[in-house]
Amino acid sequence: MPVPSDHRPLVFAGDPHRNFTPILRTCASLPPGTLILLGDCDLPAPLAEVMAPALAAGWDVRWILGNHDTETETAFDHLTTAQGDLGLRVTTIDGWRIAGLPGVFRPRVWVPRAEEGPPSFHHRAAFHAALRPGEAWRGGLPLWHRDTIFPEDFERLAAERFDILVTHEAPSSHRHGYSVIDDLAARCGARLIVHGHHHQSYDAKLPNGVRVRGLAIAETWVLDSL
C-alpha cells in the first residue's frame, strides 16, 4: 500500500515467529518510519541484531510481548532488553497516540468470559504474594506469567486517551477474541485496533464502530487512514 512521500509510514507486523524476512523486505521498500511488532517474535538473537538493516536505514522499531516471547529466558531477554516497548503505556508516534496491550489472558489469573467467573487476581502484587515456593523467577513473577494480562492493565489504560490500540490478543471481531478489548478501545476513543496472535489476516468493524485489523504470521500492513 503506497504511502505519500511527505509522510513517515507506520507499519504493523504480525507475529514473526522468527521469520523476519518479509518484515525487513517491507521496510526496505519504504522510506523509514515506525515499525510495530505485535508479539511472538521468539527472537533467536537480540532484536537490534535481527532488525539491524531496518534500524540502519532509520526505522524506529517498537514492540509488545506475545505469549511465545515468555516461553524461554533467551526469547524474553532478546526482546525485553531492546528499546521500543509499547506495553501498558500510550506513546505518541508521528501524531498518533498509540496504546499497547501486550500478552494473553490465562486461566490462573483472568479469562474475561462470563462462563469463567471473576478474576482470581486483579493485581500482579497479589498474584506474586500467592506464588508457591520456587515459582518466582528473578525475584518476580514466573517467566510464563510475564506476559499475562491482569485487570489492572485495563484499569491503567482506561485512564488514557488514544487513537490506536495494538494488542496481541484479539477483540470480539475474531471468534477467539474478547469483548473487553472492544470496550477498552471505545472508552479511550480509539478508532483502530491492530492485533496478532491468531495468524489471520482480516479487516473488520466492531459494533461500536472501531476498526480492527488482524495480521497473519509476519504479515505487514501500512496504516492507510483511520
Overview of the structural elements:
With 226 residues, the protein is of the alpha/beta class. It has a single domain (10-222), classed as 4-Layer Sandwich (Purple Acid Phosphatase, chain A, domain 2). The chain contains seven helices and ten strands. It has helices at residues 21-28, 47-50, 52-56, 73-80, 124-129, 151-158, 179-187; strands at residues 10-13, 34-37, 60-63, 90-93, 96-101, 164-167, 192-195, 202-205, 211-214, 220-222. The strands form two sheets. It has a six-stranded mixed sheet, with helices on one face. Strands 3-2-1-10 form a four-stranded mixed sheet, with helices on one face. Strand 4 and strand 5 (96-101) form a beta hairpin. The protein starts with 9 loop residues before the first strand and ends with a strand. The model is unreliable at 1-5 (pLDDT under 50).
| Portion in helices | 10-25%
Q: Give me the CATH fold name.
A: Purple Acid Phosphatase, chain A, domain 2
Number of domains: 1
Report the CATH architecture: 4-Layer Sandwich
Descriptors for this entry?
single chain; disordered N terminus; 4-stranded mixed beta sheet; about 230 residues; alpha/beta; 6-stranded mixed beta sheet; Purple Acid Phosphatase, chain A, domain 2
Chain-wise SSE layout:
Elements: E1 10-13, H1 21-28, E2 34-37, H2 47-50, H3 52-56, E3 60-63, H4 73-80, E4 90-93, E5 96-101, H5 124-129, H6 151-158, E6 164-167, H7 179-187, E7 192-195, E8 202-205, E9 211-214, E10 220-222
Parallel strand pairs: 1-2, 2-3, 5-6, 6-7, 7-9
Antiparallel strand pairs: 1-10, 4-5, 8-9
